[in-house]
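note to self: dont lose this again. the chain is below, predicted strucutre after it. 265 aa total, dont forget to put it in the shared folder this time
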Amino acid sequence: MKKLENRVAVFIGGGSAVASVALKYFIAEGASVLQVDVAEPYFERTRDIREEFPNRIHTFLGACTSQEDMDQAMAACEEQFGRIDIVCNFAGFHGAGDVTSVLKSQWDLAMDVTCLGIYRSTKAAFPYLKKNHYGRIMNFASIGGRANRGVSITYAASKAAAIGLTRSLALELAPYGITVNSMAPASLDTSAFERIPEHGSIPHEPPKGALTGGPGATRGGSFIPDRPLATLDEIAHALIFLCSEDSAFLTGDCLDINGGQFMQP
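---
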């Protein structure tokens, strides 16, 4: 039996590179998916698979910064597919600037998207998950929220907040048959995807001397020979695990996919 047979998933930030690759694996494992994102160009990455499975993949324009949008997205999913089983929160915002120059607007947007976005989507999905006494919520975090990393302080803080929120939600929602976990990858190979500017971003130079990610962005880099980056397919396999019955006894946890970078002193 397929791991997600007859399950229905909502992808918040569903047009991201990671979500676009994950989509094909969710479909292969039997799920139906509602992709939610803030602008039509984000859906272009999945045009081919959407045309192949028009009854199992729908799109919805909405922002995780709006509770109304999240409420409407979940209602649309229920109407189109008859239920909600899984919510994957892929949306995030980097921001830029060092401690002396980071803009308050960058702080506000990073926290609003990356942390409060998870809260809003979970709040919107909860009545549907509670009704079925079943749910899988996956929050896409980052090694930037777990360890020393050459990323902006807004990104590091908002990803760490998302991991903390995951734990609190897991405790609160466990009585309703809902598990909540996060995933914190290191650098990912997104070379096959054209970068789409972050919605609502504000141009700002990164701090001087900051590392920009990729191989060696943490001390020592990956411990796996010739594997500085994880592939998006590897991330998708882990997502299937976190969103399936295989992870039924896992909640409030953060799955680290970083080539052993936590082993470094």
